[in-house]
Amino acid sequence: MKSESPITASNSHEGTPLLDLRGMVKSYPGCLANDQVDLTLMPGQIHALLGENGAGKSTLVKMIYGVLRADQGDIEWQGAPVTINNPSVARGLGIAMVFQHFSLFESLTVSENIALGLGDSSGVNTDSLDEDIVTISARYGLPLDPERYVYTLSVGERQRIEIVRCLLQNPKLLIMDEPTSVLTPQEVDTLFKTLRQLSSEGVAILYISHKLDEIKALCHHATILRGGRVVGIANPATESASSLASMMIGQDVTPHRLPESAGFGPVSLACQSLTLPAADSFSVKLDDINLSVRAGEILGIAGVAGNGQDELINALSGEILLSSADMVQFKGQPVGRLMPGSRRQIGLCVVPEERLGHAAVPGMSLAENAFLTGAQRLSLSRVGFIRHRASRQFASRVIDAFQVQCRGSAAAADSLSGGNLQKFVVGREIMQKPEVLVVAQPTWGVDAGAAAAIHDALLGLAADGAAVIIVSQDLDELLGVCHSIMAICAGKTSDVFPAKHITMEEIGLLMGGAALDGLQATDGVVNGQESARKFGPEAPL
Amino acid sequence: MSETVILTLLTIITAATPLVFAAIGELITEKSGVLNLGVEGMMLVGAVSSFIVVSVTGVDVLGVLAGVLAGMLLSLVFSVLCLTLQASQVATGLALTLFGIGLSALAGQSMIGVAYEGLPKLSIPILSELPVVGQLLFSHDILVYVSFALVAAVAWFLYRTRAGLVLRAVGDSHDAAHALGYNVVAIRYLATVFGGACSGLAGAYLSMSYSPMWVENMTAGRGWIALALVVFASWRPWRLLFGAYLFGSISILQLHGQAIGLDVPSQLMSMLPYIATILVLVLISRDRGKIRRNAPACIGKAFHPTT
After folding, report:
1. Helices (H), A118-154
2. Which one, of A48, A46, A21, A19, lies nearest residue A35 by Cα?
3. What is the homologous superfamily of the domain A6-94+171-249 according to CATH?
4. Could you list the mean pLDDT of each consecutive 10-residue stretch along chain A, which spans 541 residues?
5. Is B158 on the interface with A (CB under 8 A)?
6. Looking at the domain B2-116+136-294, which fold is it?
7. Largest CB tally within 10 Å, which of A127, B2, B228, B302?
8. What is the chain B residue with the closest CA to A112?
């Protein structure tokens, strides 16, 4: 860990800084999001902004881009003081930003979306803009069709729109807020190539992430934030991932230890030729999915968003009933046509991906939300009446066990921060001691400390004999906690591989729909040879 | 015989015109992501205001302007409540309709029975002399021509200008529009007030041209038909024009049904616009692509800007 002052570090570069921030302060009621943050960026530099959720990274870049207004602080751009109170001012200076949650308009075309992000001078439906889009996207290897409507595009393609929109402004500074959270490893490689090309052309890049290996691979310089303050300046290439992580978290992190995979019990949950037609042109059809998970086993399902994960989870939870009950079997018993409540009753619990609005009712209290899924297994109702005290107690137990920061069991679900609500909805199911737990993106948007707590709880649940399925795009997470791993692509699942013997690149290939030749799939559990062959090169990406 | 047909067609035009005005304004409002259910109320207040002004001053232009202004004022109240103070749009819109019904009845008490000869017909020279076509297309009051021009202008604005693109963007995702630096609340104010102006104009047409007099509650549900019409047209201006004439024809057929030997209960006919709208809703809901392309995704949602 280096603890040089920011000034010494930035002086190692020559010339006038492109951007120089001094003493940036931004506070919200009850929270100091940025506290005297300094940052210096040189032209052509790829600068990482590293920190946990809530460290103040997004707040800082939103002030640079003019979306948020700083309470205090000075911004110098190319040596001259500036006030950036609107994104159009930032764009005028040459600052472009790719947002974490895309700022795209789904009902508009690619070219209309790009026109909206450019200055007021640009027209609409102009052929010249379409030409520029095609030229830029070819130059940086980001293929895009200007006429397509955004709602028809995949997440990766959507991000390309954002990047091309930025590049069309000939930016001097490109800000990227967690750009890789939704991409496959292969897409990440392409993105990095583009970013390195830009950097060599003199564009400075401010890159926000909490993925340490990416930052080590890409960035020249890193500023580490914790609790709204700069806690370190580092050269990521010479730091180890664990030293960066300990700066970020403020304490040493111990990597996860995968428990021994011996001694699984009988099969708890199995899908047999699970097939589900697409509900409409926006959903994915599930095509002959076979999988099984044994008591004590954690199975990870990797996949890029929108490849059938939602449909699979809904089929397992009972939100979508299947044409045949045999397609989902719980301890040998066909449950494919049971309603969600009945499945929960027998011990099949599910945590959906969208925590606010799907896993929890936003305007209801935590106690009421606890009742909604806990009613059956914990007998929280009696002859049709809610047992309020028992519900409150259950909610409080979850809050205590998972250290959910909130104002107690009466707090509304939407008053919690994302990470805390995630701890609550995952904890709520775990505390019901299910025999099978299916959980989607268990640590999405959760900081490292809370993620570790959730992972520990999942491992503990499996150690107690439950079968767990984790659906996630976060490969680090899957490799860290799962015994076996499979991928889903275009509604088809791959073979199952033992997590010990598969690499991140190989999972990436599986997520793209390719088959792995050299690797031995777990025996007898899943798709036989025939479906493995079927899942060959013709599978769509 | 042909004389009856021409007369019927002429009444269809006069029945469709107020629907065009009210619906095209609401279309712009909804495209910006605001649902104003107060169309009926704004029409009524527009109708009574223009009738009072024209019968006091005797100047037609002032009457029309008074209707437009009254609609704008009412929609401004709605905007302050819903866009600045973040009140529920549905509840406020309904309240606006009820308020408009009451206010117009109160203001118009002394106007019942007052006579006014109506807006003059603006016959276009030469063209209006043509047999049949001349009478049908080229000898109306100015507002009928304005209604066609307005639809063309709105279609051009929405799909050919940058401002129209921004308006559609704000209605599609107010958070994204805000992140790009567009002033969501200001744009929605403008769109809502434009909607109010058009509703007021629709009211002015009713009391100054359609039936030049003031009768309590004279809109008789046309505001609701206009609301249904926007959905029926799936938020497309030219489809809206078509829909307005279709709904206008239905309402005229319902009036003249008996005369031309159509033996259908009039209640059934007055249900038709709504049934048609529900059918269209069901049909377009089957194709999510169509909904995604045309329906403003943020409609009715409150926008809380972060600073």
Report:
1. 127-139
2. A21
3. P-loop containing nucleotide triphosphate hydrolases (3.40.50.300)
4. 39 72 83 86 91 79 89 91 88 85 83 81 63 84 85 78 86 86 74 90 88 83 88 85 75 55 83 87 82 93 84 92 93 93 94 86 91 92 92 94 87 81 92 94 77 88 93 84 90 89 82 71 45 36 37
5. no
6. ABC transporter involved in vitamin B12 uptake, BtuC (1.10.3470)
7. B228
8. B165
